[in-house]
Amino acid sequence: MQQSSALADLDALLEKSDLDSSDWAEYEYKDGDTLLAKLNAEDRAVLFRSAKVRPANWRGCLISILHPSNADERHELLGALEDSDDEVAYNALSRIYFFCGFIDSEKKGVLEDSRCRVDGLRERVRQDRIVMLRMQHLSQASPRFTSYWRVLVDAAGEG
């Protein structure tokens, strides 16, 4: 089956992009987001299946444009916690914390902000013991995420 133009364009963009570049942050991110939104269900399935064999930077760029309000993108984002590349896994962890409604304030530390929360993601995280264990493992291995973990656990009533 022939892949769509949007899928081919998104694949090419992810292939050439660098997550840490200013081009990605300023322009290419928006292009990737637009192309992802154009994909039909079949193209999305092809994209997500191919992610497992793509380079780490490709996967990292993909993770950065996922919207966890979409069930398939939420699934892909949560699955990235198990990525073989630590940078991809930590990028996913950062986005999961953000979309669960947790931000880091310079003055107050990590706190809840419901404006960025995606309830479907937050509920899935709270109900999935494997996801919670992986988040705990990654968070405790990184000083940057330790306080996020504590706030998440307190908010879930498990602390």
Overview of the structural elements:
This protein has 159 residues and is mostly helical. It has two domains: 1-65, no CATH class; 85-159, no CATH class. Helix content is 68%, strand content 5%. It is globular and about 45 Å long.
In brief, what are we looking at here?
By secondary structure, the chain is mainly alpha-helical. It folds into 2 domains: 1-65, no CATH class; 85-159, no CATH class. Helices cover 68% and strands 5% of the residues.
Lay out the secondary structure.
Blueprint: H1 5-16, H2 22-38, H3 41-51, H4 56-65, H5 71-79, H6 86-99, E1 102-105, E2 109-112, H7 119-127, H8 129-140, H9 143-156
Antiparallel strand pairs: 1-2
Order of strands side by side in the largest beta sheet? Answer: 1-2
Q: What's the number of helices? A: 9
In what range is the share of β-strand residues? 5-15%
Portion of residues in helices?
Answer: 55-70%
- As for the number of domains, it is 2
Element-level helix/strand string: HHHHHHEEHHH
Mean pLDDT over all positions = 93
Characteristics of this structure?
single chain, 159 residues, mainly alpha, two-stranded antiparallel sheet, 9 helices, 5% strand
